[in-house]
Write a structure and sequence with these properties.
By secondary structure, this protein is of the alpha+beta class. The chain is built from eight helices and eleven strands.
Length: 295
């Protein structure tokens, strides 16, 4: 389990000395007893959240959520997720309670806006969110390839090879990560320490493509147990040279035949088009709305 206690935000206010209503340990215990599908607690709560002041404690209405303040985006917004709960959807009665607590938490942290996924818990309160000033920001697409049968493997250039990300190769991993996750909708970049901590949870599925001189030109990161591809990225000067196809071939070699799942931002037209060309099909659309935090 990754549980990190990192320095407080630079915003000085009385809330810093106020004990939060729930501890990190209590949040882990509650969320394990009331799990939310698709939530990776060790990453979301243990890595991407600084401390318990970032937890939105709404256990009285059956929910616990987090503002993932360790993830950054160019305009300062932060993603929010419900990570535990015994209710499946927010209704008109619980909506004002949870929005007020979310806004209060974000306001105390000095966060200008929050990104919310309009699936599951928020799906029945779109009109109420709109009245609060929330608006569509981008769309996440869940894609699946049924069997990874997109044709025979293509050969690597002479002298190139795939290699696991060992500690001595972590700087190259970070360099490619920052290159491949440049400013675009829906891309939240963690600080280096958190990026490495998250990567190490899937170290057996994280590889670099090394050229004949040993320089990293591309990378893949996938969760083998879930057959889920987190990321493909390459050096900027190598884009458009077929490395995406080489990356998918290596993922298939690691996983074997069977389905492969991933998420791509619809507004990232290049990546979206590539995956469709390779035979992936859309299984779900998730709208991400931005909620302004009123001072």
């Amino acid at each position: 389990m990754w549980i990190r206690f990192l320095p407080e935000s630079s915003h000085s206010a009385s809330w810093v000395n106020r004990a939060p209503s729930i501890t990190i340990e209590e949040a882990f215990a509650y969320c394990r007893s009331h799990p939310v599908a698709g939530i990776d607690l060790e990453r979301f709560l243990g890595i991407f959240t600084t401390d318990a002041h970032r937890i939105v404690d709404a256990r009285d209405v059956g929910l616990v959520g987090i503002i993932m303040d360790r993830l950054t985006i160019v305009d300062g917004a932060k993603p929010f997720e419900w990570i535990g709960g015994d209710v499946e959807k927010i209704d008109a009665t619980t909506f004002p309670i949870v929005v007020e607590r979310l806004r209060r938490t974000a306001r105390e942290l000095g966060i200008p806006s929050i990104d919310l996924a309009l699936s599951a818990h928020w799906s029945n309160v779109r009109d109420l969110l709109a009245r609060e000033g929330a608006h569509p920001q981008f769309v996440d697409l869940e894609l699946t390839h049924a069997d990874c049968n997109w044709g025979p493997d293509r050969p690597l250039p002479e002298g190139w090879r795939w290699a696991l990300v060992t500690p001595d190769r972590e700087p190259a991993y970070i360099s490619l990560l920052n290159c491949g996750m440049g400013p675009m909708p829906g891309v939240y970049v963690p600080p280096e320490a958190e990026a490495l901590a998250s990567m190490r949870t899937t170290a057996d599925g994280t590889k670099l493509l090394l050229d004949a001189q040993g320089q990293a030109q591309a990378m893949i990161r996938c969760k083998l147990a879930n057959r889920y591809l987190h990321l493909i990225c390459c050096a900027s000067e190598m884009r458009g040279r077929g490395l995406g196809r080489l990356a998918l071939d290596e993922v298939r070699r690691m996983l074997g035949p069977g389905p492969l799942h991933l998420t791509v931002v619809k507004q990232n037209e290049h990546a979206h088009g590539f995956y469709l060309h390779m035979g992936f099909v859309e299984t779900e659309q998730i709208e991400i709305w931005r909620l302004p935090i009123v001072p």
